[in-house]
Amino acid sequence: PKAFARRARSYRGLLQARRPQDCCSKRAADRSTAPTTWGHEGSAAHKTSSETPPRIKRGATMEVDEATIVTASTKRGASEDPQDAAKRLRTDDADAMDEAAARTRAEMTPAEREEAERLHRTAVRAEALAAAQAAAKERGVALSAAEVAALKKEQEAKPKFVSKKERERLALERLEAKRREREQKLRSGPKFSAPLPRKEPSIKKAIDDYAVLREKKPVAKKDTDKERELAQIRENYLGKKGKKKQPKPSEKFARVFQFDWDANDDTSQDLNPLYARRHAIQPMLGRGYLAGLDMREQRRAHTFSQALNDKRASEARAQEEAEGLARAERKKREAQRKKERDALTQALAAEEKKVEATALGKKLLHWTEKPLQEMNARDWRIMKEDFDIRIRGGKAPPPLRFWNEMAVPEGIHKAIQDAKYRDPSPIQRQAIPVGLELRDLIGVAETGSGKTAAFAVPLLAYVAQLPAQRIASLAEDGPLAVVLAPTRELAQQINDEIAKLSTYLSCKTTTIVGGRSIEDQGFLLREGVEIIVGTPGRINDCLESQYLVLNQANYVVLDEADRMIDMGFEPQVHTILEAMGGLLMSEDEMLLEQQRAALSRGEACYRITAMFSATMPPGVEKLAKKFLRHPAIVCIGDEDSGKNKRIRQHVLFISEQQKKQTLIDLLRRKQPSEKYLVFCNEKRGCDALKKVVENAQIRCGVLHGGKTQDQREAALENYKRGTFRIFIATDVAGRGLDIPDVAHVVNY
After folding, report:
1. What's the CATH number for 373-636?
2. Which residues are registered as beta bridge partners of 390?
């Protein structure tokens, strides 16, 4: 009871707001029954006890005994009546309780009021029992049976603390009791229970339910002004949807045209038999030919002469057997007939050779078997179709058939033979003749199609035919030609290819790329070189530092132009082209031919621009319109995407967490001789992926812009030689690099 009394004190304000009169009376009673004895007013010892008066206990006895009233009245004075003192105490506490109730009534919710009422009732009962126990103890009288029962009931109603283990034990006991109860019911019940009778559905009830459902009308959705406005806007922009009439199933296919023929439409009965069996023409009894058709095919189809000879031989053999000639005589005649057949076959072959030597026979030869002088427009058209060559931009020279047919210095022919170039590639067949005519050129071909040699051969032929005074002024006026590449590795590769083709020519080349000392490169430029190959950034730096001048550089090549635009080199390319000393050719085609003839004689300085790319994005077209004049555009294959038809592509849709393990499994399945090239987007990704691959006991190399130039060259050279067959790189290795025997490319 004391614990409940302490808990009830925290809700004193709530109880006062609910029943202030009872609280006041109980508080007065508690004060009257307090154990502290009060002295007379004005005495020295105001209190006879050192303890403070205890707090009011709620739920104590509701009656105030006479001794308490007398004790309380002594505080005011001996003349005050005990009944007046009790009344005064109740009045003071009632005023205080009214003020508390007014403060808390507005702050309480219904749930809080209900909880306060419940706690009030519990506290009243607890304090009443506590007061009864205390009174009985003081009087020395035992409690009555009713009081003992009420006390026991209150003790059982009080919450009891139970530990976690005890709660678990009690829960297990309850579960075990329920299980035993179920088992007991199963043992005592019947073994087989009869199924409950199933009530058959009533047809009348189903009909009534259906009628009720039909009578119910769907509740219409509330049509607000906002919804109507939105509906009008949709109808204005999207148009009003007309309701389509749903056709009947029988009429759905009535208007569909049936591709069937009636029986009276059959005209095969009236077919002319002369047209049904056409007579095959056998010119010269199977030894002649029809005009303009394939002679070899006619010779296979028209075997009338051979069939006639075989028939005559079989008839003669049967006649001899019928006449009963001797075996030796038959063999002799058979040998004579064979000799006659061989002579006839030789005569037919000689006649065929004679026919093929005529003009008709020469027209039927393939373009690879004809001499260059006898090639006609049909042969050139067939050749372009064979290699998927498309050219536009005015009149263009015919494509190149063989290396020995191009008009270049003999040293270039020897270099091509030493390099063991067998046949020209499609881009080389058309780009080299255009370049040899000193025309502006745009070449669009797939990566790895031989574009380097396509512009290197005309470039070397141009440098070789320049007069000697131009060569003598290299140190003062700068190089004669400039080749721009997007990456250092591609620039180094182009320089090696040009050096290989100029082995038998007195032509010096050098590379101007980042990662090297600009002072050393400036020293090489001051000595004088005919051709420089470099990246736009470093060449622009040399121009700004005055290590390089382009006063007589009239030939410029932009290799992988789309890649340079993507990498953001467009401003540097514009600066380099504007710094060149050559003049742009005229837009007029007639005047352009005159300027080109003067350029070939070395009389004028007009610029020649060649641009090679795998695709033609808008940035490349903008650059071409500004710096190229009436160019010949050569396209090989698919010019829109630049994809290689010889490559098969496989796409794996996997999560980010599965990528590393999938790559490791792919690399472990490779053959020992296969090379893998793995591309990553970032430098950090390359280094992290290299660690993952090396942890899987697989040797690999890495190439990205964060490496020094020596490290990049060493890694690329080791990969080409086959020191390691897994190469991880960023997009710096994505264009133009000539790496042999790459079997798989992984875009990681």
Report:
1. 3.40.50.300
2. 635
Q: Count of H helices and E strands in the chain?
A: 31, 12
**Farthest-apart Cα atoms in the chain, separation:** 185
Superfamily the domain 656-747 falls into: P-loop containing nucleotide triphosphate hydrolases (3.40.50.300)
Residue 745: beta bridge partners? 677
Q: What is the reported pLDDT for 364?
A: 64
Structure tokens given for 16 = 């006062």
Long-range contacts of 690-699 (CB under 8 A, 24+ apart): 690/728, 692/660, 692/663, 692/664, 693/663, 693/664, 693/667, 693/726, 693/728, 696/664, 696/667, 696/668, 698/664, 698/667, 698/668, 698/726, 699/724, 699/725, 699/726
Identify the three-state secondary structure at position 708: coil
Secondary structure of 481-543 as H, E, C letters: EEEECCCHHHHHHHHHHHHHHCCCCCCCEEEECCCCCHHHHHHHHHHCCCEEEECHHHHHHHH
Across the chain, which has 748 residues, the per-10-residue mean pLDDT values are 53 47 46 42 38 41 42 45 54 58 62 75 76 72 71 71 84 91 82 52 65 58 75 81 72 65 62 63 66 66 72 79 69 83 83 63 71 85 88 85 89 90 89 90 83 91 86 85 90 90 89 88 88 92 89 88 85 87 59 66 72 83 83 78 69 87 85 84 87 87 84 85 86 74 85
Q: Which helix (H) or strand (E) holds 477?
A: helix 474-477
The alpha helices in 193-293, defined as continuous H runs, are 203-215, 225-238, 273-276
pTM recorded for the entire structure:
0.49
Q: Classify strands 441-444 and 632-636 as parallel, antiparallel or unpaired.
A: parallel
Determine the Cα–Cα distance for residues 37 and 71; give it in Å rounded to an integer.
Answer: 7
Look up residue 341 and give its two tokens. 């057949």
Structure tokens given for 555? 């030939």
Cα angle: 632, vertex 636, 639; to 5 degrees: 90
Residue 173: what pLDDT? 92
Q: Report helix, strand or coil for 655.
A: coil
